[in-house]
Amino acid sequence: MSDPTPRPPGSRIALIAFDWDGTLFDSTAIITRCIQQAVVDVGGRRPTDEAASYVIGMGLMQALAHAAPDVPQEKYPELGARYRYHYMVHQEDISLFDGVLPMLQRLRERGFTLAVATGKSRKGLDHALQAVELQGLFHSSRTADQTAGKPDPLMLQELMEEFDLTPEQVLMVGDTTHDLQMALNAGCPSVGVSYGAHEPEAFVALKPLHVAHAVAELHQWFEDHL
User: If you average pLDDT over every residue of the chain, what do you get?
Assistant: First the structure.
């Protein structure tokens, strides 16, 4: 973790917390296939694309259990191991969405504190950050195995405590209802993105400030509203 940069004058938002998969990292399709293959490997019925992508953003075992209701609990360790195997095979295929890096760099230049709040494991996130050379851009991060899985608000609450911020000063950006529900549970505003795992129609009830349909649109919204 690096020291936060000065907060931009006149901006209520001081910290922007990003989900990782499907929001910054273009990984939704690969994660969906890995979940499906892992379930089949342990004898479960192959989840549909919709069912497998819906659980993205949850903690790993919570996600796999939800996607594979016919797999008995005693097979969960094997199920998790098979998912990790398939993901490791394909993780180098994953890349940042176009425009993410300059967007994050611009937010840093403007003085925002940046964080990641993800359902990934600490090991998985650290590997991803190293692979795409992003270590210097984020002031902090939280993972599901460190705190609690989404939509539990603990990730955001810990970030608020770390940087001495109120809920109104923290903006959550994510591609799933789990991300936006976590923000709502923490009392924080949110922005949804429609290019990840969940259909944007599901976001309406969670009252995001905006739903962006591309990274360029998200970047412009930051410029215009923060």
Answer: 90
**Whether residue 151 has a cis bond before it, omega within 30° of 0:** yes
Rounding to the nearest 10 degrees, give the CA dihedral for residues 213, 217, 223, 226: -10
- Per annotation, catalytic residue among 19, 21, 175, 179: 19
Q: What is the pLDDT of residues 95-136, one digit of tens each?
A: 889 899 999 999 999 999 999 999 988 988 988 888 667 878
Is 26 a catalytic site residue?
Answer: no
- Placement of tokens 């970030």 in the chain: 159
pLDDT, residue 148, reads 93
Delineate the domains of the chain, giving CATH numbers in brackets. 15-26+96-225 (3.40.50.1000), 28-93 (1.10.150.240)
Q: How many residues does the chain have?
A: 226
* Residue 59 amino acid letter: G
Q: How far apart are CA 225 and CA 132, in angstroms?
A: 28
Strand, helix or coil for residue 10: coil
Instruction: Collect contacts of 147-150 with beta carbons under 8 A, ≥24 apart.
Output: 148/59, 149/58, 149/59, 149/62, 149/119, 150/57, 150/58, 150/59, 150/117, 150/119, 150/176, 150/178, 150/179, 150/181, 150/182
Which helix (H) or strand (E) segment holds residue 145: the answer is none
Quickly state the pLDDT bin for 54 (edges 50, 70, 90). confident
Q: Give the predicted TM-score (pTM) of the model.
A: 0.77
Handedness of CA 184, 23, 101, 153 (dihedral sign): positive
> What span, in angstroms and rounded, lies between the C-alpha atoms of 152 and 170?
16
